[in-house]
Amino acid sequence: MVELVPVYNSTHLTEIAVIKSKLEAGNIDLFVQNYEHAQMAHIDILALGGMNILVPESQVEEALAIINEPGEFLDTDIFDDYNPPWQDVPPYKASLWPIVSIFMVALFMVIFTDKDILAIPLIGFALFLYHAQTKASDIQARKDRHESQRNL
């Protein structure tokens, strides 16, 4: 049985597609974990920990060399140009208000209406959002630690 090793992780479909193409052009066998799922339900990819490019253990060094080699993609780094207004706010805190708002609506429904049963899906959705944002925060923290270790 061939052991697959993760060599790249991202939550961006485009970034994964570019790296996947580079590796395929270098004749690297690979599998992208969660790729199809991300195409169908992109918000779920945060809760799943992103997409991982997995390669056979025997091709890890070659794959990392291809990923890290200078080229047009890494030189321009299109993902650094994307600057959303909430970029400086950690993902967990950026999404706290929608979660609190959903809970408030659910509480309002329970207290002031006879539609208590409708509050259950709202609470479930709020918990899902909280879980996804917690995972996104964990991924960002891991990436930050990895980048700081790489720069040493």
Count of the domains: 2
**Separation, N- and C-terminal Cα atoms:** 36 Å
Content-based structural category? mainly alpha
Could you tell me the number of beta strands? 3
Concise synopsis of the structure shown:
With 152 residues, the chain is mainly α. It has helices at 13-25, 35-40, 44-47, 60-68, 72-76, 78-81, 91-94, 96-112, 116-151; strands spanning 4-10, 31-33, 51-56.
Can you characterise this structure?
With 152 residues, this protein is mainly alpha-helical. The chain has 2 domains: 4-81, no CATH class; 91-151. Helices cover 64% and strands 11% of the residues. It contains 9 helices and 3 strands. The protein has helices spanning 13-25, 35-40, 44-47, 60-68, 72-76, 78-81, 91-94, 96-112, 116-151; strands at 4-10, 31-33, 51-56. The chain has a 3-stranded antiparallel beta sheet. Helix 8 packs antiparallel against helix 9 (116-151). The longest helix is centred in the last third of the chain and has 36 residues, at 116-151. The protein is elongated, with a radius of gyration of 20 Å.
